[in-house]
Structures are given as C-alpha cells and as structure tokens.
Amino acid sequence: MMVSLTAETIIQSLASGLLMGLLYGLIAVGLALIFGVLEVINFAHGEFLMLGGYAMALSLPLFGLSYWPALAVAVLTTSLVGVVLYEFFLRHVGQKEFERSILTTLGISMILLYGMQYLFTATPLMVDTTYGFEGIEIGSIRITMTRLIAGGLSIVAFTGLYGLLKFTQFGRAMRAIAQNREAAMMVGIKPRHVARNAVALAAALCGLAGAALAPIQLLHPAMGQAIVFKAFALVVIGGLGNMTGAVVVAVALGMIESWVGGFFGIVWQEGAIFTIIIVAVLLRPDGIFQRGGMRVG
C-alpha cells in the first residue's frame, strides 16, 4: 500500500536512504579497489561484510556493549582475514585468469558463509550497544544514534581513503599499479605488496560497513549475499575502478531504494532497484563515470 506523501515522510525516507547509501558506498569502494589493483571481481566480498558484523556482535559483550572498541576489533579482524585470503588464494590468481578468479572467490564465499552458518546457525541475531534506541528528533523526524554514527563513519572513511590514495606513497603505488602495472614495476613498485595492501584495505572498509550495520539490521550469515550483488552493480554503473563513481551511485541507489520501499512497500523495493540497475547498464554499459585506473576524483 502506498504511503501518503508528506514533508516529514519524504525527509525521513531520504535521510534513511542517504545513510544506507553511504554504507553501500563503503562496500562498492572496496570492490572497486580490489578490481582496480588485482583486476579480480571478488565474489567473497559480501562475506567480509558478514564477518565484520559478527566480529562486532561477538566483541560487544567483552567491552560491556561499548560501540567503539568493538568496531575497532571488527575492522581489524576483517582486514587480517583479507590478508590471509590474499596470501593463500588471491595472489595465485593471474590478471587474465577470469574464470579461475570467479571459481576461487566463489569457493571462498561458500566456505565462509557455510562455516559461519555451522558455527552460529542461520538464526538472525539482534545486536545491542550502549546507544540502545537513542536518537535525535527534529519534529516528527527521528534518526537513531547508530544510524547517525554509521553515516558519519562512512564519510570519514571516504575522506580518509581519498587522502590516502591521492597524497600518500601507499596510495600512489596502488594507483600506479592500477593504471600501468609494467611501468610501476620498472620504478620499483612491488605488485604483490600493493595487492595485499589493497585487499586488506578493501576488507577493512567492508568490515566497517558490516560492523556499522550490525546494530541497525538483523545479523545472519547470508546478510552479505544480497547486498554484494547491488555493490557489483554499483561498481559497474559507476565505472569499473572509479572510486568516486561508485560512491555517488551508491548514495543515489540508497536514497531511491528507501523512497520506493517507504512509499510503495518493501515488496516493490528490490524489483524497482534492479530494474533501474538493468536500465542503467543497458544505456551506459561502460558506466556513468570514466572507467578504470582507480580514479578518485
């Protein structure tokens, strides 16, 4: 049933969509980062999101439900998992081995998904923090603290990533490998080290999104599966390897998704979003923004 249009419902819907879009952006940027450096589409990326959520949930009781230490543990855990997966699996996948990369990352995805399901069952978990249901109210518009913090963390992460890629040796090495691997190797940049750093950073961003989502949505082992397919579409529409494009499209998608779900019902939400994605890919198969080179602006 369609909800009546009022200024309050429109603002509430757009605010929720903006915050969700920022979290989608963290996931999409991680995918774009791995593709830009390794030229591998990581089908296990959704499991980084799930691991971040579970690391947050398991850490909270240790810190008396304190949000920030548990968040730090979640980000560090997913980053370390990213390094391990790179060293054992992804570094053995060549740039031109597309089929092998799909099989490898899908296999990793299934192992992580069903391993976590075996350990924690498929029953959804509700994650509580010291913030509880606290929030801010402006008239009839209410936004919880956990959503506000999630949005703020996303903006800080995007700003930090931009500075890292644009102004540091660490980031310049990543961009050099993404733009011209042979030339980068000639000036002494080591692709393996750069690729490992890229996977660790991408996993940390995805873990941050999962940890931020944990107190907002129900936590379950398959939570990353649905979101990661949207993230793949966001990366393609934004221009493969284009960081700015991935973020802009993610925020737009989150706001459209919230608006459709809020006014026309959840049943229409997924169908409408994937219809928009299909139309966008048909009209702009190379993406809305310039493709490749791990562009950040």
Set down the secondary structure blueprint.
Elements: H1 7-38, H2 45-59, H3 67-88, H4 98-120, E1 135-138, E2 141-144, H5 145-167, H6 169-179, H7 181-186, H8 191-213, H9 223-238, H10 243-264, H11 266-283
Antiparallel strand pairs: 1-2
Helix pairs in contact: 1-5, 1-8, 1-9, 1-10, 2-3, 2-4, 2-8, 2-9, 3-8, 5-6, 5-8, 6-8, 9-10, 9-11, 10-11
Profile the largest sheet.
2 strands, antiparallel
Low-pLDDT parts are: none
The average pLDDT value, as a whole number, equals: 86
Structural class: mainly alpha
Number of strands: 2
The H/E string reads HHHHEEHHHHHHH
Major beta sheet, strand line-up: 1-2
Q: Give the amount of beta strand, in percent.
A: under 5%
User: What is the CA-atom radius of gyration, in angstroms?
Assistant: 19 Å
Could you explain the architecture of this structure?
The protein has 297 residues and is mostly helical. The protein has eleven helices and two strands, in the order ααααββααααααα. A two-stranded antiparallel ribbon has the order 1-2. A hairpin with a 2-residue loop joins β1 (135-138) and β2. The mean pLDDT is 86.
Task: Name the descriptors.
297 residues, mainly alpha, two-stranded antiparallel sheet
Summarize it:
The chain has 297 residues and is mainly α. It has eleven helices and two strands.
